[in-house]
Design a protein that fits this description.
This protein is mainly beta. It contains no helices and eleven strands. The strands form two sheets. Strands 2, 4, 5, 6, 9, 10 and 11 form a seven-stranded mixed β-sheet that branches. Strands 1-3-8-7 form a four-stranded antiparallel β-sheet, with no helix packed on it. A hairpin with a 6-residue loop joins strand 4 and strand 5. It is elongated.
Length: 119
């Protein structure tokens, strides 16, 4: 079994910054991608940023230029640096890890961490 644990959420004023961290541990075969999703109240979960094999990084249009995803492959850890935060960034942020096993790829999710942007 693989565990995914996030940390770093909290309350921040508009224009401020936060850094989220996520670590995957346990019976891992090979993590092919790690990323961040978010879900605001009354809305569907959406992709924020993903870091895939080969250094490929993708971002939602709404966060481009403000958020940066980085990954430590040796530690199966991913980070999300969030700058110039806006009230519309308020959501529960979930970490996702894709484990490439001999039986196929398996998705694992963290429990989520709350990010609130408010004055």
């Amino acid at each position: 079994q693989v565990q995914v644990v996030e940390s770093g959420g909290g309350l921040v004023q508009p224009g401020g910054s936060l850094r989220l961290s996520c670590a995957a541990s346990g019976s891992i075969f090979s993590i092919s991608a790690m990323g961040w999703y978010r879900q605001a109240p009354g809305k569907q979960r959406e992709l924020v940023a993903v870091s895939a094999s080969g250094g490929v990084r993708n971002y939602a249009d709404s966060v481009k230029g403000r958020f940066t995803i980085s990954r430590d492959n040796a530690k199966n850890t991913v980070y999300l640096q969030m700058n110039s935060l806006k009230p519309e960034d308020t959501a529960v942020y979930y970490c996702n890890a894709i484990d490439r096993t001999v039986w196929g790829s398996v998705d694992y999710w963290g429990q989520g961490t709350q990010v609130t942007v408010s004055s």
